[in-house]
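Quick entry between incubations.
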Amino acid sequence: MPALSKVVQPVPETCSAELSAGEALQQLLATGADALLVEKQGTIVGLFGHREAVAAFDDGSRPVERYMRRPLPGRNVADSLESGADIMYREDTPLVLITEDEGPLFKKTSKTIGIVSALEVLAEIGKTTTDTASNKVFLGRRDLGLNVPVSPCQRACPIHQDIATYVDYVSQGRYLDSWLVIHETNPFPSMLGRLCNHPCETDCKRGWVQGPENAVSIKSLKRFATDYAWARRVKIDWQRAPENGKRVAIVGSGPAGMTAAQDLRLMGYTVDLYEREAKLGGLLSASIPHFRFDIDQLEWEMQMIVDMGVNVFLNKNVGKDVKLEQLFKEYDAVFLSVGMMTGRILPVPGSDLPEVISAMEFLRVRSYDIMPENFPRGGDVVVIGGGAVATDAAQTSIKSGARKVWMVSIEPADRLPAFGNELVEAREIGLTLHTGVIVNAIKADGAGHVSGVEFIRVDESKLEFDPESGKLLINTVQKLPGTEHVIPCRYAIFASGQIMDFAQDQGVPLTPRKLMEADTGGHTKLDKLFAGGDCVEGPSFIVNAIAWGHRTARSINEYLGAAIPRDAKPITVIETTDDHREADYYNREEPPILPADKRMDMTPVELPWNDEQAITAALRCFQCDTVHHVDESTCILCGACDDVCPEKALDVVVYGENRDTSSGGFVEICNTVLGEEFGGKAGKILVNYDRCTNCRICEDHCPVNCITFQRVRFRDDAMQMIPLTPVASRDRMPANAV
Amino acid sequence: MMAQNRVYELPVIVDQRSLGYISYLDILQRYVRGQLAGRAADLVRAPLPEVRPELRLSEAIRLLDESGRQLVLVTTSAGMPIGALTVRDVTRTMAPAA
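Done. Structure below.
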């Protein structure tokens, strides 16, 4: 057990009790300390810190003695850390004087040798405390007063989709209902059904135990429901609020801008959407190659938003064609969601040659089905970079007719930033990887055209990666002289990062990273101006951009005077239902893809699921939004549920009896006192929802039938602006629709 | 986090809503009792005073002083946090006048 000597600090500066509070504050700020000790007649009589100084805001001329905290408790330097923490808590003070005994036995005196601050104690506690909180399900917010668990998938999703419900609807064959639940928070399920980074699956309870129990294929189920609705050309009839006469300009029609346009239009605003490209979609339509998604489905989803009455202005580059100042005059609010659509080309020798292009520009041009100038059909291409954009550019090059394509990166093959199956798919169609090297120069032939790219090896043993993001720490790259080599090619594509391309003269506040400065709600320092998405966060995932759109729409609505209930809860219980089922045990399946020899053009590679595959995948869901309901008047605390639970998720605790409590659960689902016929016993039932898999064996074995199950649906108000349930428009369905 | 940022109270924000704050006192108490294996949510004290950004600084400081807290949260009218006014911010402001 650590002693206070481990955290003791020297005695801070002292000040006289007669000193004015203002002068004492000057001294405090000059020392940079947390507090000064106040001295009177050679004795320490109190403490004057920042908290005490605030009280002297009105009049700093009075003596410090008037404001100081007293008395200051003391502890011996040999006392334990717990002892110091205890006295701080009891005396409500962040500082304790530390003394040391001196003098012989029976004549001992105490001398002040230092102080201990609560912050040092906290730091020490932090070092020695292991987080043993087992109930991962409860790490979210749903337990704050509601006493039921949040499904881990819904909690992990940036837009908090009601995943358990839409997965369940698929398992029941209610595909259209599933699609509608998805659309409550997600305007682009066709994209996210294929391309989402799916944090929901990463946190799926099915996948918590490694092995055959992999996560539910949530992403693919979303795609399946969307395919079903698309096949019937269903559209959503949103119930819009009446027009409120206020106008909002949105700059950029990527996922953040389109989502905000949808939300604001539904709230009754006039929305004008400015897009510098000749088509809507931003990154979705201009950067992601068409073989990775269904462009027709994306256009269908975007058209649904436009059909709400959003005014679209294509080929309008705000900052150049239209000045931001002009928008401020014409609109009540302006939302910038311009993304990071410009690729960076590293300034190495030869980077200005005509056959050197950024991956973002290459993909943008190809998205219009145009071949970039100088692209060598039948020639060799080098793509510099190891991320998702590099993989896209490499695959697109192959599918555009390049003979041999190299993807070259600093990171070793097992640490490439590209995730998912993309790299495997790219290699299957002929991509060659070259790793552990950094670009040195672009080589030209005598006619001034690219003839190759020169690389130099890096010391892979010295490379370090950010433990959180997994990204390479570029300052750990060390070149190995003498290892220069050239890969011959006719075309070089740089996939080495993106930058925000928005007119710098528009007065938009920027961060040191040259991103727009805004808080997570999209507020900037400028009146009327909001910003969100990649241009604030840096390159991120589509689902994060959609979350930005929702949040910023909410901020704009509030800014323009909408009455948002002050006591609104972050998550609202919207439905309880007895409609639930037991999960089934099937292996996880991935959606099939086209064979490699059929993937040499821009046809979407991922194939759809059939009904059987989708329902089988959906039945694997544990339905973590299911909770026990125990009839306390019937329960006899027999412990049968505890005994039969295969996951050891339940504990029946009877006061006065020594029963095993091994579940680690703390969610109380029953608290009862039995009648005299049962000896007047009292007790409770606790559940660990991290372990519970909703198998309902406890329900089956309860001798008095007091256990039932309920599902609880939640809606995140922050992600769903509209308190209106969307309804599929059946009158727009073709005649053969179901 | 408290030790790293040298603050005695931390606001607890969930989805742009303030739930309250965590005080160092509660962490110390839990430590003494050997009950640290919980979550921040278990310790949340409420309410944490909130002020609008347009409020006069002197009034915000008065609220801070009267509340006895280490900080007040600066929020929009719908309670969306956009910043915080801490005692150190106030003492920095006071310094030139003192």
